[in-house]
Amino acid sequence: MHMADALISVPVGVTFWGISGVAASYASSRLKKELDEEKIIPLMGVAGAFVFALQMVNFAIPGTGSSGHFAGGFLLALLLGRHAAFLVMSSVLLVQALFFADGGLLALGCNIFNLAFIPSYIVYPLFRNIIDKNESKTAIWSGAFLSLCLGAVMVSMQTGISGIAELPFSKMLLLMLGVHLLIAVIEGVITVGSYIFIKRYSLQTELNNEKRKLKPYFSILSVSLIIAAVFSLFASSKPDGLEWSVYNIMGGAEEPHSLTGYFHNLLAYVQEKIAFLPDYSFAGGSGQWGTSVAGIVGAIIVIILASSLGYIIRKANKN
Asked: Which residues span the membrane (predicted)?
């Protein structure tokens, strides 16, 4: 559900850059007061890598001709709390846009709002109390389901506000919400399973053992790298829910061309120069090695970025 620049106007893109920037500043300031260096900072890195890896594995949606992939914003909120989750998911989206050309640079603010802000600051607070009390699997599934559905609605609103004539709001909303209701069912299942694996098995059973304090993080990292390097090779090649919706509305075209201009072209040029593994493959090639390398490199970059962000915030708080 990563939006391309062609789907939004410059005013909409700039507006959501501003909203997401303010949210990032707020999250950083609040995280200073809550950061637990011994636990949260390394978990920020490996949890971010885990989500990055899972997002590479598209799964086919039977009967639709489309595919979906895990989003992971609600899972991060469960594991890290809303402030750290927002910053980690924003880091994942930034890495994807800059180095893999997955999601546009102009649309980055929209993608951060849809995939990071909504699950962290809108949905997670609705379910936090009940999940904290008894770790209800139903509540976890429902939160993940709702997060993805609201994100799909927001994508439709952002394209509608952008005034793209080829993508009428009513049709876009109908198709986006229809296919993402199906994707959200799987999102919820993956979130429940991942939460049980990370929170209960890895952390609770091993974190209290001082001699093996780092082992759970290496366990999560190992699983992430295996998913990114191996399981990504078996990802569905069908268009994801957003691409499928645009394709069906426009009768076969991959994206609208009404919103093109200097700013769109400039950002496309910048992204082309920065992204060293566009579409998670070697430039000009389609070999599977490129996908594996992209998965491993991306996961490592996310770990470094998310963990460094945590340490910087922690250090700023001490000063």
From this structure: 40-61, 73-99, 105-127, 139-161, 173-197, 217-235, 289-313
